[in-house]
Each structure stands twice: as structure tokens, then as C-alpha cells.
Amino acid sequence: xxxxPAPEREEQDVVxxxxxxxxxxxxxxxxxxxxxxxxxxxxxxxxxxxxxxxxWCLWLPQxxxxxIMFGYIWxxxxxxxxxxxxxxxxxxxxxxxxxxxxxxxxxxAKQTHMIENSLACSxxxxxxxxxxxxxxxxxxxxxxxxxxxxNDQKDVRFKPKFKLCLLQISGYKKLYLxxxxxxxQPYDSHxxxxxxxxxxLWNLLKPxxxxxxxxxKQWGDIGFQGDxxxxxxxxxxxxxxxxxxxxxxxxxxxxxxxxxxxxHPKMGYSYAIVGINLTEMAYSLLRSGTLxxxxxxxxxxxxxxxxxxxxxxxxxxEFDKFWFEEEPENIMHFNFFREKFHTKVKxxxxxxNTVLILxxxxxI
Length: 364
Prior knowledge:
- With 364 residues, this protein is mainly α.
- It has 14 helices and no strands.
- It has helices at residues 6-34, 46-94, 98-105, 108-121, 125-128, 137-147, 158-184, 192-205, 237-250, 252-261, 271-288, 292-298, 305-326, 334-349.
- Helix 9 (237-250) crosses helix 10 (252-261).
- It is globular.
- This is ELMO domain-containing protein.
- Residues 193-349 form the ELMO domain.
């Protein structure tokens, strides 16, 4: 079956939503009209309670749904009609297309965000294809300039700045695919590379203590739950190990410091398990697009896997500080403080100028 174009699907989704809102409104109206009026008795009957509830439910949707419906209608009108006219007017007033105006008047993550949105919302297939993960950036730059009739002799700054934006946009999407592939890769105890990485993690965190055997309770000393760490990597696969190992390799002192904090008699926690949990947090932030501003500000080009590892290093180091500042009673409150920390990080990432990275980290 042929898939409907995105604009057509969006229009039908809006219409479907409006019909559902209207249906709910009609049902509540009929219910309140057929309900019995309140009596003068001191005690409310079940029918009267239902009447009060339905009246309240009617009042809320009556105002809330009007705003929602107005928002959807305005979004549809703006994206389908007004935006095109406004772009046409500005093009003739300034002599420059929307992409040129964005690149001339903004910078940093805000610039890349606006370029990405402009390309994604364009009615031109050439422009929309420029924000795909697998593109030839140079070819896309040339195609877009040809489509928008941009003369690189008159606007010499457009081409390099636009290319940088495309590198960041496509690079972010490619990074997500790479992270996803690593997450889906299970830990294999028969894979020599996997085993070497796991043993290296131990040696970096416990340089003066040798493992008695491959399967041993000693793994609990660095925060694994069982005698064999491979069972703890099921949720995040090799991504969890890669993050923990990167932190230990590039911030060895910091990793050992965080590990020592995890031994606290009252507020201690399982270092490796928390690291894997924070790997999931970093992954979810990447998947949702929340990390875009961070990477757009951090990397003048395509972000790589090491940049994702660096963000994890920031998370685990800052979470350790956050954990002890909050002074939880015990590890049973972990989920509560984990979500509180998650909210804090998302608030920081909502700033388009933000860069969350440990001091002394080399980003290039």
C-alpha cells in the first residue's frame, strides 16, 4: 500500500483529533442535561455526585479543548498558508531566502536548529532530503543552493556555514544509529574483544588487586550485581561497558574517586549498575533529540561516538556529586533521585547555549 505524504497524514490526524474532541464534548453535554438536578438534602446521592463531576468535566473540556483546537487550526493555517507567504514577502524585501537570513542573523546551536527546522518543513523534496542521516553533504549543499538560486559569489559565507549545519544535523542522526547499534550488541563472553574490555575496566579501577577468576564475587567490588558481569549488560548491551571503560580510560582519577564514594556505608551505591543506568539516561536523551543543542555547540562538524562517551562521563561524575548533596537515606530511594537528576539535566539542556562536559576534556 502506498504511504500517504507527511503533510496529508498530518492534516488527517488533525481532523481526526478535532472530531474526537467534539465527540467527547457532545457526550458530556448530553450527560449533564440528562442528569438529575441537585436536591436540597444534606447528603449528596450517587446521581448528584455524578452530576457535579460531569458538570466539572464539561467546564474543563469546554475551555481547554477550545484552546487545543485553536492551536491545531492555527498550526495548520500557518504551516500550510501563512508561512509560505511570509517567506515570499521576506524574500522580496531582503533579496535573501530563509536559509540565508538564518545563517546571517544567528549562530551556534540556535542556527543549526533553525536550519534543520526550515529544511524539514520545506515543501521542496530537495530541501527535505538534506536533513537525512545518510547524505553526501557536499552534494546536498550544491543541490540546495541550486534549488534556492543562491549565488555563492554574492553570498560567500553561505556555503561553508550551511555545510557545517548539515554536518551537524546528519552527524547527530548517524551518531544515534551508531549508539543504537552498540546498544543492541549483547555482551558475548566468548568474544575475546569483549572479555579484554571487561578485564581492562577491572584493572583500571582496581590496579592493585587481581581477579581470582573470571566468574567471581569480586566483581561486586566495582558495582556489579552478580558473579558474572555479562548479565548486568543485558539492558544496554556493549554500550554500557563502552561508557564505563571510556570514563576509566580518560578520567581514571575521577572514575576511581567516584568508585570510592560508592563504598559509603550509608549513601553507597553499586557503581557499575548506576553507570549502566546513566547510560540509559544518556541514550534516551540522545534518542529524543534533547542532546542536539549540546552537540551542536560542542562539535564544529559531525559528532562522534567519543562525544557521546564524554557526555556520559559528565553524567556519572555529576550524578555522584548530586547524590551526596541530596543525602538520600539509602539506595532504596535511587529511582526518585535518579528522576530528579534527570529533570535537572534536561533543564540544563533546554538552554540552546549549553555544553555539558567535564573540565579538561579534549573534544576534538
